Amino acid sequence: MFRSAFRHFSSEYFKKMVVHKNPDISVQSKNFAKNFLKKKSEIIKKEISVSEPLWKEPQLDDNDDDLTEEQQMEKQIQKLEPSSRPVVYNLSYYVNKNPVLRTFVQMGVFIRKWDKDPSVAKLVLSLDLDKNVKPFLVFLHDIGVPSENHAFIITKNPAVFQDSLQDLNNRIEYLKSKKFSKEDIVKILCKAPKWLSLNVQEVDTRLGWFQKEFGLTGAELREVVTERPKLVTLPTSIAHKVKFGITDFLDYSPESLKSLLLIYPKLFTKKFEQIEANFIFLTQVAKLTHQDIQMFPSVLIFPLQTLKARFAFLKFLDRIQFDPTKANFVRFTECF
Fold first, then answer.
1. How many CA atoms lie within 13 A of 222 on its CB side?
2. Sign of the torsion angle spanned by Cα atoms 197, 202, 204, 205
3. Position 111 pLDDT exceeds 70
4. CA separation, residue 105 to residues 6, 148, 323 (Å)
5. Is residue 106 classed as helix, strand or coil in its secondary structure?
6. Global pTM?
7. CA 233 → CA 139, 153, 202, 269, distances in Å?
8. Cβ 320 vs Cβ 285: under 8 Å
9. How confident is the model over 167-181, as pLDDT tens digits?
């Protein structure tokens, strides 16, 4: 806009210089003004001759006669798209263009969860439907995973497509060698899809750590892992911190620690700070004993504000009585 305005005023100024005989203007300046106007007129003529109409009637191919009006319109829209890939911020842009993503959406995969990780998006866009996706679905079917769980497994663990089918089969065979039943394996994969991405050595090391630290038998280990497979998929440092806090700070014995794991294994996947805050409230304010909490360890991961609100309500009703040997006993599990 500034450039066009400058050209306009420059042209008007030079016209005045040529037309009006001003004694203050030198001959050299007048010659320069004449040459400028001459070149400008030549450029304008050239631009007019070269310029094309802003819109052309779309040329339809011979095969377009068989297409519906909607399909023809879609084809013309595709021709109008830029040659370079546009900047997009989610995978939904590629659903109609990528057969793998289209298949995932039809299955019920929640592809929006992958937008936060560019590496996952790059992996998914590079997949081939026949070479990568279909063999994996057949693998899930062969090991007994119900079809309604396929979408959930892919949503939670798209990185599984980086592993070969041979590696996946080896991980399943390892679980069978540890006497996990077919039903147990299906439960593990449906509850913790990331289990498939752990190699055999990692799984063996983590299972061995739990068995040694808690003194579990083979049957007890299988029971705990099947109930809460995230114990294995999460770093063992989380369970180690909870174990250390319960024994050293909450003063539970090793036998009680094992009982807590068998009753409520989810406890060892949470932050110890929350467990400690709930324990202090339950023992010092609610006056519960270690044995009471050991029977219902799920209260240790309840939101602290929920515990305080329910305790205050019982206090208002004058119903704080958790001892089953006394009158007006209130069942602990129904309160919290």
1. 14
2. negative
3. yes
4. 56, 13, 54
5. helix
6. 0.70
7. 21, 14, 9, 10
8. no
9. 999 999 999 999 999
